[in-house]
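User: Here's a chain of 204 residues. Predict its fold as tokens.
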Amino acid sequence: MDPITIGLAFTAAQAAVSQIKQAVALGKDIHSLIGQFSKFFQSADTVHTASIKARISNIGKSDAELGRQALEFAMHSDKLREDERALKDMIYWQLGKPQIWEEMLKERNRLVKARQAEERAIEEAKQKHKEKMGQIFMGALYFVGVAVIMFAVIMMSIQFYSMSQEQAELDAKRATAAKIRREHQRAREQEQKKQTDAAVKSGA
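Assistant: Prediction complete.
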């Protein structure tokens, strides 16, 4: 949260305190000041939680800037806590209606707890969504990995089958060539034998 927003929230809270004090001084009914009290507590809450919400925006700032910002947050927060005590004393002692302050604090605490519970529910829902998306992503990676492995296995099987077929065809060709050579060899041997037998007969 930037310092300008914090400054505006602090100014709004101070203005609400001034309006409440002026209204009480003029004798106005405190029940008519609900809007001003709401504005004060809302603006004060913005200032009190500023240091937490400002963490992201602090990146890139110098030590001097962070120190000045921290001092402003602390001073604004301290002043608003003093204003809250002053409003409490005014309701307790000046107006004599402490029950109003006590009831207001109870309701405020209830609303704060309800808001915190809602914020936790939102954060838990976001975390569950992240976990679910992570599981889906990991499942997708697993599926892709399995698909890649299966594709590789299928391609290797096809390659091995193709190689075995080529080897079988090569072996068949070699066997055919060997058979032809044997037949030619046998034919030559028979021819030579005939010629030898013929020569022997003519010499006799």
